[in-house]
Amino acid sequence: MSETYTASITAPVNIATLKYWGKRDTSLNLPTNSSISVTLDQSDLKTTTSAMTCSSFTKDRLWLNGEEDLQLSESKRLTQVLANLRLKRKEKEAKDASLTKISSWFIHIVSINNFPTAAGLASSAAGFAALVACVAKLLQLDDDMTELSKIARQGSGSACRSLFGGFVAWEMGEKSDGSDSKAVEVAPLEHWPQMKACVLVACADKKDVSSTSGMQLTVKTSDLFQKRITEVVPERFEQMKKSIMDRDFELFAELTMKDSNSFHATCLDSYPPIFYMNDTSRKVVRLVHTINAFYGRTIVAYTFDAGPNAVLYYLEENEEKLMSFIYAMFKDLSGWESKYNGEQLSKFLKNFEEQKLLDTLSLDMDIVKGCSRVILTRVGPGPLDTDDVLINQEGLPKFTK
Amino acid sequence: MSETYTASITAPVNIATLKYWGKRDTSLNLPTNSSISVTLDQSDLKTTTSAMTCSSFTKDRLWLNGEEDLQLSESKRLTQVLANLRLKRKEKEAKDASLTKISSWFIHIVSINNFPTAAGLASSAAGFAALVACVAKLLQLDDDMTELSKIARQGSGSACRSLFGGFVAWEMGEKSDGSDSKAVEVAPLEHWPQMKACVLVACADKKDVSSTSGMQLTVKTSDLFQKRITEVVPERFEQMKKSIMDRDFELFAELTMKDSNSFHATCLDSYPPIFYMNDTSRKVVRLVHTINAFYGRTIVAYTFDAGPNAVLYYLEENEEKLMSFIYAMFKDLSGWESKYNGEQLSKFLKNFEEQKLLDTLSLDMDIVKGCSRVILTRVGPGPLDTDDVLINQEGLPKFTK
């Protein structure tokens, strides 16, 4: 058999707190505004990707979750991403004649998510980040993550932010070739490791429109959108970075909630209007404001991507306060036992019963019916090396469906 | 018994097609933007009001739907409205000494809606329009409706538009005393009598926030709101008036839908966000766009006020096209038999079955579950004299609960 190279990596999901919505260039995935996200812990949500290259391979191939994805394999965005990575390898080979010219070989890629793709949890972001980081490792590139983020961005815009851990900004840039549209670290995981997240996965409704076509409809038709991208977001971008640097949770939370609402407002202002939040999402919004009002300060923030799932951000120090509501209301969902023992869960319930006695609440206990599971996680690191090799020596997936 | 004067009148509901949302002066009900509405036919939706004044009455009293409303009787807005009307009478009395000085007498007012107040159908607009028109008649004022609209506006902003039939604009004005914030006729009923309306009354959810406090929250907190009132609405106001003058339904419909969406977008952009549309409202939005796409042109428009009810506007010539969908999907609701005979209803169903065969549709037939009734109506006249006297000779309601 011919010589082969193999690399494996894991990459995280990120959930934006300042939303990416709108492209100024659809081919290069150049956004109309900068965005910010929190990278989530890979022990809860991750994509694992292995890549192999071999002189005898006859084409680039890609397997997602055990099945070959011919459509993505032949897509413009994957082709573009691989071409960009190979170009970097080629430049390296040109400088160092001792290097094997693997830039001309085909690549097999095997990728698996440890969470349901259908859950609407930014799987394409983690997927393209893993792919770019993995192939960069395979091709032994020396580029830093910011440089690679410009390539990942072309696969899936928000993928660029999954190349960093902690708190990440995607600077929109202004150049037409996209060379300044890149991800940078706002603060590493270690800066604010107390940041936790609780994902309330909503029962899958039919999605209104894909985010790719949805965002361009907004760009084209929303009268309010220009205000968002030219005034609202630029100011919020600076404020949110500062709130992270200052570890000012109340400000961070308020900006996060406002930006989620602003993004969904421009969706609603599109024509025809786009709806991603449903009645359950609305109930979660109300619940969060009720909880914050109950405690007299902002201990939790909601944010919604292009779907009805709620992501709640909160600090570890307020976990009991928050979970005394959330566990009591969502206890029938799966996802609790892996994080809390029986004693903790009983404590949450007991607190809730005591709080209800205060009679300040009018909670909609039916809210749980619109949700399918809870995912408890926290801020986490960027792509990591892994010993978990998904590809066998023939360059085929070890596990298939 | 002392001398009495009595007057009775009916007034219509109006549903805005360019929304009023936001006050620049909460005491005088001066709006942040101009608005436009269609007045609905009183044979379907109306408020009937009788008023009596008598030198022996000891205070102003008000009965709504058979019950005395002490709160409203003593409210600032009612006091203000009656004081303004009495002032006009007083000026008249000062000029003509032969007039009885009824401006100093107390007034009893009895008012009944022929539709459920709780249905969220702008009952306060019809109510205050009827009250102002009725008391103006009682006091034999000579002012025209535009002049009276400045008084009705102080009772309930949108009430000013219910003083005219047909197509009505509320010009926001710019003076701080409100003397130029008034309703004017854009076009009378006779200009475009083919305009019909179908109200899909949604199952009453708990209202998020009252429109009075909701709109001020938007003014105070929405970043996108300024764009709406300074740029979007002023342009749309002129376009919509033109579309009415030109009887250009497609343009009128598109502007109506966009403005409803824009208004709800600024609600969502408020903090905390305000939601008036629910999942059923969203389904109606989708259905309307599906119907228009099916016919390849805009034959129907939706609009939503501060609640989940949908009001659909359409032209009589497209009634069969529209009802072939709407009746088929909402046939289990009450409200059909009073407007259509069995033959017509069968025709609608038959058309629908044939259309479904085309298989271009993915309709959510469950949509009906979120609705409680349908109200079929059309554009109608402004306040009308009536022989229906609701007050007895003692100045008390003829009918009580």
Question: What are the salient characteristics of this protein?
Answer:
homodimer; 401 residues; alpha+beta; Ribosomal Protein S5, domain 2; Alpha-Beta Plaits; 6-stranded mixed beta sheet; 4-stranded antiparallel beta sheet; 10 helices; 21% strand; lipid biosynthesis (chains A, B); ATP binding (chains A, B); EC 4.1.1.33 (chains A, B); diphosphomevalonate decarboxylase activity (chains A, B)
Descriptive notes:
Chains A, B: Residues 198-383 form the Mvd1 C-terminal domain. Two copies of one chain form a homodimer. With 401 residues, the first copy, chain A, is an alpha+beta fold. Chain A has two domains: 4-188, Ribosomal Protein S5, domain 2; 195-378, Alpha-Beta Plaits. Helix content of chain A is 37%, strand content 21%. Chain A has ten helices and 16 strands. Chain A has helices at residues 70-73, 76-95, 123-138, 145-155, 211-221, 225-245, 249-268, 279-295, 319-330, 342-357, and strands at residues 4-12, 14-18, 23-25, 30-31, 35-39, 46-54, 61-64, 67-68, 106-113, 167-171, 182-187, 195-202, 300-303, 310-315, 371-378, 384-385. In chain A, the strands form four sheets. A six-stranded mixed β-sheet of chain A has the order 8-7-9-6-1-16. In chain A, strand 7 and strand 8 form a beta hairpin. In chain A, helix 2 (76-95) runs antiparallel to helix 4 (145-155), helix 6 (225-245) runs antiparallel to helix 7 and helix 9 (319-330) crosses helix 10 (342-357). Chains A and B meet through helix 6, helix 7 and helix 8 of A and helix 6, helix 7 and helix 8 of B.
